[in-house]
């Protein structure tokens, strides 16, 4: 909806620009001929004004280019100001996003709420869906921080929702950013691994077939559990 409205505003601004040009041309022609009015002269819009759908496609390609450029820039070292700029977006108020990203600050967990990181992890797929995959670079660092959190409840929350996040991000971002975290969850505690195991099919079906085959040999690793009496884990695997 934001893209369509932005495209409509851009198209209307182009219409206004065309109208201004035609009026200026008309006044110049009147000055040259020395008359007050030109008979049968009507302001017509140029047919070359782009359609809204075309503008949206151009915006999509521009966003895709910006996203790719940000991916490349993430591989290099940033100054604090540059890092701050990479987390800027125009979907929600920036102050609101900054407040959300600050929820992973360890000092907040000690002074505000010990469960705050878990709440942040629980709502992350919704935030990612709201911002869109073109703004994933704003959340990537926060997601990696949560995935390595000391509390297993935080990692468990992410493990249960990683397949939903993969649908939001698409196959390319999933392969680049989520697969390494997914592999880490496979070697985590049973409480975390069962989240991955429960939605194993939902996640693997989003990967390319060559990458998918690599996990066939890792299924047997699920037979090794922290507690041999954990029948629920074996039942989920079965």
TrEMBL record:
It comes from the Eukaryota. This is Serine/threonine-protein phosphatase 4 regulatory subunit 1. Keywords: Repeat. The gene is PPP4R1_3. SUPFAM superfamilies: ARM repeat (SSF48371).
């Amino acid at each position: 909806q934001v893209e369509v409205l932005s495209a409509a505003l851009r198209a209307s601004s182009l219409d206004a620009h065309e109208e201004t040009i035609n009026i200026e041309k008309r006044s110049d022609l009147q000055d040259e001929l020395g008359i007050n009015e030109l008979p049968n002269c009507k302001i017509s819009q140029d047919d070359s004004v782009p359609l809204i759908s075309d503008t949206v496609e151009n915006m999509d390609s521009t966003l895709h280019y910006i996203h790719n450029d940000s991916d490349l820039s993430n591989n290099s070292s940033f100054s604090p100001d540059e890092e701050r700029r990479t987390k800027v977006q125009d979907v929600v108020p920036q102050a609101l996003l900054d407040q959300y990203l600050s929820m992973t600050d360890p000092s907040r967990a000690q002074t505000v709420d010990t469960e705050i990181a878990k709440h942040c992890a629980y709502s992350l797929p919704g935030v990612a869906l709201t911002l869109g995959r073109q703004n994933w670079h704003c959340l990537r660092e926060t997601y990696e921080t949560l995935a390595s959190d000391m509390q297993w409840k935080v990692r468990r929350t992410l493990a249960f929702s990683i397949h939903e996040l993969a649908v939001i991000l698409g196959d390319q971002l999933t392969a680049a950013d989520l697969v390494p975290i997914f592999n880490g969850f496979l070697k985590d505690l049973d409480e975390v691994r069962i989240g991955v195991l429960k939605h194993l099919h939902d996640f693997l079906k989003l990967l390319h077939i060559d990458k998918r085959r690599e996990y066939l040999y890792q299924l047997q690793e699920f037979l090794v559990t922290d507690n041999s009496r954990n029948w629920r884990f074996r039942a989920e695997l079965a």
